[in-house]
Specification:
This protein is an alpha/beta fold and about 270 residues long. It has nine helices and 13 strands. The chain has a single domain, classed as Ribonuclease Z/Hydroxyacylglutathione hydrolase-like (Metallo-beta-lactamase, Chain A, 4-Layer Sandwich). The protein binds zinc ion (2 copies).
Length: about 270
């Protein structure tokens, strides 16, 4: 898997808010400013077919309307057919994102919803484990599905998705692991120090863990906890994300190298 850490910051710094692109087509969170960031990094927005939303805070999903505009209208301009867009997220993901789009661009809502075939995974209703296949029917000859090779019948890719409830104040919040070719990447989303967060770290080879502050608080993790986890799980790569300015400084002062926006990770 190739994972681009598109954004590394919490709400306040100049860096883009925490978000990731897996193998060019799976987004983990879609914060305000993400589409422009993808353009700055020269990434193809039309390849996105899946968005995993961790929770309904603006710095995690407010650029969805901008993504839809690209998929609906830029695809038409380039003469490419829009592929289905799968959205996974908290309870009410469908209603919440439809409301967001209508608030953003009421005048194009009908056209967007007629153009993009949406699919929703409501984590509370549809379960926490899903197998995603790309492209859906594969491109090669039909064959046996081989998860060890990350191959679906027909030659497409398989990604096994698992969601974990995490504690982020009163907001329903989820972290994810994504497994392909027996390698697992984890994304905690916004969380306090809680069992779900640690389960994600344990299940992952490479885990992106939020650290908004130098020292953890009731709603967000801190760099102190990142350092603890790195010591407890030395065989894992544990990378801070969603960093505030002071958190970034604290990590560097502790000898860590805080990732910059656009850092590419390979698994
Ligand atoms: Zn956040
Ligand atoms: Zn949040």
């Amino acid at each position: 898997m190739e994972i681009i850490q598109l954004g590394t910051a919490s709400i306040w710094p100049a860096e883009v808010s925490s978000s990731f692109l897996i193998d060019g087509h799976i987004l983990v969170d879609c914060p305000n400013g993400l589409i422009k960031q993808m353009k700055r990094l020269d990434l193809d927005i039309l390849k996105i077919d899946t968005v995993l939303i961790t929770h309904f805070h603006a710095d995690h999903y407010f650029d969805l309307p901008l993504l839809y505009l690209e998929l609906a209208f830029d695809a038409a301009e380039r003469g490419t057919q829009s592929c289905p867009l799968t959205l996974a997220g908290p309870s009410g993901i469908r209603a919440q994102t439809e409301t967001l789009y209508r608030l953003a661009y009421a005048d194009t809502a009908q056209a967007v919803y007629e153009t993009i075939p949406f699919r929703y995974i409501d984590l509370a209703e549809d379960g926490r484990q899903h197998r995603l296949r790309y492209p859906e029917h594969g491109s090669g000859p039909a064959g046996a599905e081989d998860p060890a090779e990350g191959l679906a019948a027909g030659g497409g890719q398989i990604y096994d998705l698992r969601a974990y409830p995490v504690i982020h104040g009163a907001t329903e919040a989820w972290g994810y692991t994504v497994t392909c070719r027996e390698k697992t990447a984890g994304f905690t989303g916004d969380t306090s120090f809680c069992p779900g967060m640690e389960e994600i770290v344990r299940a992952s080879d490479l885990a992106f863990v939020e650290a908004s502050y130098p020292v953890h608080q009731s709603v967000h993790m801190g760099i102190d906890k990142i350092l603890e986890l790195q010591k407890k799980y030395p065989e894992k790569r544990i990378i801070p994300t969603h960093m505030g300015r002071e958190a970034r400084r604290a990590y560097e002062e502790a000898g860590g190298r805080a990732p910059a926006d656009g850092t590419v990770w390979r698994l």
